[in-house]
Amino acid sequence: MRFASLGSGSQGNALIVDAGETKVLLDCGFSARMATARLARLGTAPDELTAIVVTHEHADHLEGVFTFARSYQLTVYLTHGTHAAASQGKTALPECRLIDGQTRFAIGGLEVQPFPVPHDAREPVQYAFSNGQQCLGVLTDSGSITPHIVEVLGACDGLVLECNHDQALLAASNYPARLKQRIGGRFGHLENDQAADFLRQVDTRRLQHVLAAHLSQQNNRPELAAKALASALGCSENWIGIADQEGGFGWRQLV
Ligand SMILES: [Zn+2]
Ligand SMILES: [Zn+2]
């Protein structure tokens, strides 16, 4: 199993999980045209995809989902709440499967475990993906860490982990007070130290890759995210990968 990012941050997010026959796009926060170009960068054509799995309705995750799914006849998996919020003013999806936010489902050879996250959307979830041997956990857009998140992502082989902001940079930024409260609040986004605390709570012995994702371009810096995660893992800062807005990150293999 391998995975790569098409880009990550408040301007758009999409991740591809490739389990051989089954290739799944997690969110599509880019226009269909841009997503296609970014997939090409990873040597993948849209018609190789099996499905799109959606976390929540915010535009940086949903932007291209409908057009992309229609263009390539892809099944879209999402919660009832996300579907209700996402469908307003849009034409119907070609094929969508409403999922329960806590119940595992299969897409081809990939097992997909959704889990609810505290975030200011209608029914947001994040996901763990397993091919039966390796497990990839993805956690972004979560205002805090719950015991359930720690349980689901307790022993992953790969983690893509939100490091949205540095608390001091956010506090010192010129963002309006209400926006600061939203981002830093319990239903906002994880900051570097929260992500590091999460790593201290899980079994990290199997981890082959850790990537910091959804970094704020104003209120974070890659080196601060890497430093926080590396200190929790007791590893070199260079070992921590960074998902950036433009380039995402290239293929990472789980063996
Ligand atoms: Zn987001
Ligand atoms: Zn969001």
Report on this structure.
With 255 residues, the protein is of the alpha/beta class. The chain is built from nine helices and 14 strands. It has helices spanning 32-41, 59-62, 65-72, 80-87, 147-152, 167-172, 177-184, 192-201, 222-233, and strands spanning 2-7, 14-19, 22-26, 51-53, 75-79, 95-99, 105-107, 110-116, 125-130, 135-139, 158-162, 209-213, 241-242, 249-253. The protein binds zinc ion (2 copies). One zinc ion is lined by residues 13, 58, 60-61, 141, 214.
Topology:
Blueprint: E1 2-7, E2 14-19, E3 22-26, H1 32-41, E4 51-53, H2 59-62, H3 65-72, E5 75-79, H4 80-87, E6 95-99, E7 105-107, E8 110-116, E9 125-130, E10 135-139, H5 147-152, E11 158-162, H6 167-172, H7 177-184, H8 192-201, E12 209-213, H9 222-233, E13 241-242, E14 249-253
Parallel strand pairs: 3-4, 4-5, 5-6, 10-11, 11-12, 12-13
Antiparallel strand pairs: 1-2, 1-14, 2-3, 7-8, 8-9, 9-10
Helix pairs in contact: 8-9
Bound molecules: zinc ion (2 copies).
One zinc ion is lined by residues 13, 58, 60-61, 141, 214.
